Amino acid sequence: MNISEHFTFQEFTFSEAALRLELDNTPAPAVIANLRLVAAVMEQVRTLLGERPIVVRSGYRSAEVNEAVGGVITSAHCRGLACDFVCPAFGTPAEVAVAVLTSSLEYDQLILEYGWVHVGLAQGGLLPRREALTKRSRWAAYESGIRA
Predict the structure, then answer these.
(1) Per residue in 20-78, pLDDT tens?
(2) Range of the domain at 118
(3) Is residue 3 part of a domain?
(4) Which of the 8 DSSP states describes residue 143?
(5) Which residues touch 70 (CB under 8 Å, ≥6 apart)?
(6) What CATH number does the domain containing 129 carry?
């Protein structure tokens, strides 16, 4: 089932960890509404990147899946408000992050992570912070700004 022109519900809810550990990763209806918002922003990212295909690495995560993958308890993924992705046809994750950073796209967090880009949206009613961070490895601290 498509939740936008180029993105499916399955892309935003699939989790290798959930499959491997037999964890339920089914979002509640309110989360599905948030996933539609994320998909709409990802359509804008796709346009920004020259209509090149985007590969979603992680979208929604149930609390159990989030814990299993080492996510922080406040993760926007648990509310269906985040997407980790790559766009190899455009360039490296650093090049993708810079393109998003220098655009007018509304996001709460943009994180250049070790191998992908994270875009998180603000919770309903809150203003997006347009916070940009870099995380060089799973164990590294977050650094302010996008640093290739």
Answers:
(1) 999 999 999 999 999 999 999 999 999 999 999 999 999 999 999 999 998 889 999 99
(2) 9-144
(3) no
(4) E
(5) 138
(6) 3.30.1380.10
